[in-house]
Amino acid sequence: xxxxxxxxxxxxxxxxxxxxxxxxxxxxxxCIVGPSGTGKSVSLKxxxxxxxxxSGRVWIDGSCINEADNAExxxxxxxFGYLFQSAALLAWMTVYDNVALPLREKxxxxxxxxxxxxxxxxxxxxxxxxxDAYPSDLSGGMQKRAGLARxxxxxxxxILYDEPTAGLDPVASTVIEDYILRLREETKATSIVxxxxxxxxxxxxxxxxxxxxxxxxxxxxxxx
Length: 224
Hints:
single chain; globular; 36% helix; 27% strand
């Protein structure tokens, strides 16, 4: 479970989130929507303490991440996979090495175990055929799928999707939405999706909140 408890985040005199509270239950696909600049991506960064709240608390499975010491912070972050808006692949690495990177940096797995994990993750997103390709060889949709493979290769409990369909055509967007749904079923991970895409909201989400002017102005289901 993820819980925001009276969270405020300000940058100088500008308040992005103003005393915001909500809960994300285990196994949900939870969408955060709203205009640009209203704190959607900031919310994801608060969940893994890339940013710290100005006030309030962010709880991850009963632990307050913004009060965690270094060892606890590393343990909490290890529960997350993150799909960045731009996919954020390293241009000088192959797809294989991009996906293997978090395992090599953060685990003590052998290269054989890493190889098995990488191939399994790429198979899940149907990108095994591009294992030796470089990011520049891939379409935008394929880059997102490679980024998604990297996000799930550590077998996270939570997957953060920051604008997963941004810059993609309608067909590629539908493919990414299909993976969001499929990975929830296959991995049982909780998914938090920041999006402007109405089809993602209506097809994928169990719960939705809308942020506007630092506040939650709607919370409910896609049907609501």
